[in-house]
Amino acid sequence: MRARINVLSELPREWQQHLARWSRVNRSKKRLVGEARSPSRNDEYLLYQTLLGTWPLEPLDPGRLAGFGLLNSLSQVLLKLTVPGVPDIYQGNELWAFNLVDPDNRRPVDYRHRQALLETLDASCRDRDSLPALLRELLDGIADGRAKLYITWKTLSLRSTHARLFAEGQYLELPSEGPRADHVCAFARRCEDNEALVVAPRWFARLGADGGKLTDSGAVWGASG
């Protein structure tokens, strides 16, 4: 438990340290615009956030913020495709895309690459016995985007097969219990006798994710047997 708390407390402390250093380094770059120095402190903070959010994954620094962000993004994809409403998906965003808004998010998409990855995943999923190993491989190589593609593909396929469930189904919030209860977002979609259960994890730093990667599920969730 102490290690998890330390990980959580180190992230904001490290962010504050970087902010202070960047602010000192860039202080001489500011200019007077009217009677105020530009950029303002708020605008400067936004610039640093934007740079961090759009920084390429390669090389991905294990153990820092990027890994947690990728895990959070996988949960976000699952929620986006299962909550009520029509999911808004940019073409090409089946893999990781570190874009700003228009026109940055209108860059050409390598569809052949995505199609090849999807065909490989499809072939790998035909052997159900190898599915656990495949899922572990996708999480271990989370930076390559295949995990996001897998979730997108499988969930959209479910929506296609059970279109009425997701178009008209009820949204039922589900309470969670146990020592990790705060770390899941759970709900059900129900339409007549058809029902889908959705469970998405959150707050990965507090779960003790090592380098942004989850250890065995039993160690994380306290499962036994």
Structural class: mainly alpha
* Straight-line distance between termini: 22 Å
Task: Figure out the total of helices.
Answer: 8
Low-confidence region ranges: 1-6
Based on the model shown, name its key terms.
globular, 2 domains, 5 strands, 225 residues
Question: What does this 3D model show about the protein?
Answer:
The chain has 225 residues and is mainly alpha-helical. It has two domains: 1-54, no CATH class; 55-221, no CATH class. Helices cover 47% and strands 12% of the residues. The protein has eight helices and five strands. The strands form two sheets. Strands 3-4-5 form a three-stranded antiparallel beta sheet. Strand 4 (184-191) and strand 5 form a beta hairpin. Helix 3 (65-80) runs parallel beside helix 6. The radius of gyration is 21 Å and the shape is globular. The two termini are 22 Å apart. The model is unreliable at 1-6 (pLDDT under 50).
Give the SSE map.
Layout: H1 2-25, E1 31-33, E2 36-38, H2 41-54, H3 65-80, H4 111-125, H5 131-140, H6 146-161, H7 163-168, E3 170-173, E4 184-191, E5 194-201, H8 217-221
Antiparallel strand pairs: 1-2, 3-4, 4-5
Helix pairs in contact: 3-6, 4-6
